[in-house]
Amino acid sequence: MENYDLMTLNTSRIGVDYLEKHKPDPSSSKEKPRSGIIGSFIDDAEAEIKNKTSAVVDDIEESINNAIRSVAKEIGIHDFYSVHVMNYCEGYFHPNGTSDRNVTHCSDTKGMSSFNATEVLQRQLNSGKNPINITLSDLHWPEVIDEGINDLKMAFNATFVLYCIAIIFIGLAFLSSIAGIFLHGRMSALVNMGTAGLGFLFIMIASAVVTYAATKITNLINKHGDVVNINAARGENFIALTWASTALVLVAGIAWFGDCIANRRKQKMIPKEYH
Fold it and tell me: How many CB atoms lie within 10 A of CB 186?
């Protein structure tokens, strides 16, 4: 379910500005013009060679610019990190220039899972695959992002609990609905309406909390991430899925409410027996 993440952190361009600022300056190694006829001849020959190779240099620079999207891989980290309710995954974008994902690893699935971007990125920078020994401090990683993630950690943990409670009541509503097929009556409809109503309540709250948290952290990263060339995208597929599920549970609850009203009317229509 990689396409149903809460949020995706795009780090494929992280460190681009840092590398640009710290690359060698060609002008620092420029030689002074040679004196004399022979020296002038050598300078002219070198200039001709440089002119002939300028097209090659331009091609190389263009290739570098095209590949700059995957600079993250060159310093030991991944192109993206997708955050889910119970884990996170990481990987690289396909080299065909699209945003298609190639997931290489996912963390262990567990409840109350959290994604600490600073810890994960710095650990991978320290893994030995970083040839220039760059750190997040060198990149001026915004501390406000860490603070925002920590503030929203409780919201994500609450979302997990709310989803668990919602699943329990929705499961009970499903089982009671099956029983309701064989057990007709107002009491059966009331039980089904109650379980569906509680399921709707908790999944609605969970959907609202996860939508708020995902939107909040995405906007925070996009606001402050330009410093290190990162951005984030909210998991629209997951948001759509959780609200669609909420709507379906609501429909089920309304259906059982209608059945309860119908059974009540039927009972009123039955004539009373007099002795």
Answer: 15
